[in-house]
Amino acid sequence: MSRSIVDRLVSFIGVVVGVALLAASALLFYAHSYVHNQVSDQLTQQQVVFPAADSQAITSLPAADQAAMKQYAGQTMSTGAQAQTYADHFIKVHLAEVAGGQTYSQVSAKALADPTNTQLAGQVQTLFRGETLRGLLLNAYAWDTMATLAFIAAWVSLVAAVILFILAYFGLQHARRVEVTQEQPSRVPAHV
Q: If residue 45 lies in a helix (H) or strand (E), which one and from where to where?
């Protein structure tokens, strides 16, 4: 097989892979946009507003949680990062205070064993609601993180496609040069 044919074949494969990467890039950009907008729209509709920086809701938190919450103080939740902060640095702290750090499943088991205990029943309801809300917010954070990863993958795919197209172009140029070189007859000295 001649070098020209190999160059053309490799260039053709590069173009096909480049087209596939372009399609993947377009789909990944769409996925990023769709997921990110869905997360933002859903969170914004809930109208969860972070407490003011100097409010007791924030100043009563442990120092690390205060610092995390203050960066979003007074803002309406609309991003995955905000949802994660609210879930891990606000709701989680308050849930730990409900029943001495016990989880919903632990307190629920105790409430089932003692159905007349109204204090346990109240803790069960509070923990169930809080853990559910926290889980939903962390789910929004996870989806928003996936949208960010799709965005990064889209750019990587796009850059890889452009590189493959450039390499394919140079491969085709090389195939033409090799073909011209192969067509020129070699000069053999004439014998007298």
A: helix 3-46
Q: What is the pLDDT of residues 158-191, one digit of tens each?
A: 999 999 999 999 988 887 887 666 655 556 566 6
Question: What distance in Å separates the CA atoms of residue 64 and residue 54, rounded to the nearest whole number?
Answer: 15
pTM of the entire predicted model: 0.78
What span, in angstroms and rounded, lies between the C-alpha atoms of 131 and 146? 22
Q: Residues with Cβ < 8 Å from 33, sequence gap 6 or more?
A: none
Q: Which amino acid, 129?
A: R
Half-sphere exposure of residue 17, counting CA atoms within 13 Å on the CB side?
Answer: 16
The answer to whether the beta carbons of residues 73 and 52 sit under 8 Å apart is: yes
pLDDT tens, 13-71?
999 999 999 999 999 999 999 999 999 999 999 999 999 999 999 999 999 999 999 99
What six digits make up the tokens of 78? 């609309």
The Cα 151–Cα 35 span in angstroms is 11
Q: What are the structure tokens assigned to 94, written together? A: 């308050």
